[in-house]
Design goal:
By secondary structure, the chain is an alpha/beta fold. The N and C termini lie far apart (72 Å).
Length: 292
């Protein structure tokens, strides 16, 4: 066998392996994961799932302006694009578990670990980065969102800098017409990692508060200047919501927040008045509002 023939066979075998790997995730990964990578992913994803289960099963979650409630249906019955900081992404695993929400996961070996953990929690994954509009991840995201699925985006990922919104979610909103819902997270007790995103993992029995802000719509004919305006607007909103969530995650504020009804219980046919109620309702404690 000649060298050229051998190289061709190797390339064909490599493409076949990549195709099989992509099918396991539901979207083409495009990554070059070795068997050792897959073994490590299986081991560490199992460990991560156990740790996340412990944290999620004991933490107490409350919301302000719960994103999937009927008030957001004023914008129509379509899907939503949830915008969070990369370091604050853990609470969405608790809030939106088993919702079928799509998240973006890198094609790296570490991304393989996260993809396994996310899918075990009932999420669906798109592999790649939505930062550049021409990437496969953006194409896949546009397709699934237009098909009616929600998506949650870590807006400063995949590699930072932290707390700086990338253009990906703005482009996604422009292409799909779906509103962006910015979400800030407050945690009472957490372990903060020395990573670029300063990732915060709630400790057992932590109070966690998700604070949803005013949705942002991006017109389909938005100019580059308007896209940048919305990017800056989203960044300012996320920073403000993070501070508000931190202030309310204390015992007094936490008691006034809403017990979330979650993704499974929202009704797109509900009237806007069913959502968060009046200002007096929002100021009342959960028991006063008749929450379960």
């Amino acid at each position: 066998m000649t060298g050229d023939s051998s190289a061709s066979l190797n390339r064909a075998a490599s493409k076949s392996r990549e195709k099989r790997l992509s099918l396991t995730r539901g979207h083409p990964s495009g990554g070059h994961l070795t068997r050792a990578d897959l073994r490590r992913a299986a081991i560490f994803s199992t460990i991560a799932r156990l740790g996340m289960w412990l944290a999620a099963s004991t933490m107490r979650l409350r919301t302000v302006n719960e994103p999937k409630m009927a008030g957001y249906r004023r914008l129509g019955p379509g899907p939503l694009l949830f915008a969070l900081w990369h370091g604050d992404f853990f609470p969405i695993f608790k809030y939106a578990s088993h919702s079928g929400t799509y998240i973006v996961v890198s094609r790296s070996p570490d991304g393989e670990i996260l993809a396994r953990v996310a899918e075990a929690a009932g999420f669906r994954t798109v592999r790649g980065s939505p930062t550049r509009g021409a990437t496969r991840a953006m194409v896949d995201l546009v397709r699934v969102v237009r098909g009616g699925a929600d998506a949650a985006i870590a807006v400063d990922g995949p590699k930072g800098p932290g707390l700086v919104v990338k253009a990906g979610i703005i482009l996604l909103a422009k292409k799909t017409g779906c509103p962006i819902v910015p979400i800030g997270a407050g945690l009472s007790r957490y372990k903060q990692f020395a990573s670029w995103d300063r990732f915060r993992m709630p400790l057992p029995f932590a109070r966690v508060l998700l604070y949803a802000g005013t949705p942002i719509r991006v017109p389909a004919d938005a100019s580059d200047q308007l896209l940048e305006t919305h990017r800056v607007e989203l960044q300012a909103s996320l920073l403000e919501l993070r501070e508000k969530a931190r202030e309310l995650v204390g015992p007094a504020g936490f008691r006034r927040a809403e017990i979330p009804r979650g993704f499974a219980s929202f009704a797109s046919t509900s009237s806007p008045d069913d959502v968060t109620g009046s200002e007096n309702d929002r100021a009342a404690g959960p028991a006063e509002r008749g929450n379960p």
